[in-house]
């Protein structure tokens, strides 16, 4: 009798314990405490983490309160170095989250551990509308990624080349127009300091279509100013990049003639201050300029034959050096 009572009590205690354990496991837990909804989860976290979870749970009212009361939450970063703004551009309802964060003072140009801004994150997620908004708000589109050295312009051209959707193509065009309007460098190298004509951002983009036409029109408008700047700064690498871009853009022969006329006027200035190794580079730049266009410089008697002008300057300099050496060795500068 007594054993039967004890057996019944033991069975009741066993099943009640199992039931309590099952209920406990079914409820959300955080640091040993049980919670029934996201609000309770948020209430025990540090303010900076509360902001992230409010963003993830789409609790924008609570997010506003946290950002108003905690300056640290505005500059908080996760283990990848991403701020709230980095996270927000990947959300489906970014149109509500991103403007809210910008109004509350979250840094627009903060970098993650890979050296990328929220604008570059938006492009990686192909959220072109968010990218347009960030550029209009003043995001830095000249900064290069730490890993590959891409700017926003270079990344845009790479992504646009693989674009198949007409809707996305329109968005790429809008963003490109905005970047060019605000001063994106059309002659930049795709990967930073590694100078190679095949890795120019302009040449990494589409080879035809509306985006290519936009780039060509902008090039024609700004090319004389950019080339004049390169001549004034004696920047032969940039001048060479501009010539490669101009040749790739397939412009009219009259336009190439105007380009050669500009280089012809600036050639003496470049030659005067150039050392011998730089003069060799200068000769290559002039040769490339002669080849630009459809005619491929077959006519050696054209108005602006830059290679001939360069060779004439080299011959003149050599004669002056020989004379100086012959008459007075102390004044020879060879």
Automatic annotation (TrEMBL):
Which Gene3D superfamilies does the UniProt entry name for this protein?
A: Ankyrin repeat-containing domain (1.25.40.20)
Q: What is the lineage of its organism?
A: Eukaryota, Sar, Stramenopiles, Ochrophyta, Pinguiophyceae
The UniProt entry, under Pfam families, shows: Ank_2
Q: Where are the ANK repeats?
A: 80-113, 114-146
Write down the superkingdom of origin: Eukaryota
Descriptive protein name: Uncharacterized protein
Entries under InterPro entries matching the protein: Ankyrin_rpt (IPR002110), Ankyrin_rpt-contain_sf (IPR036770), Multifunctional_regulatory (IPR050745)
Signal peptide start and end residues: 1-24
Q: Which UniProt keywords apply?
A: ANK repeat, Repeat, Signal
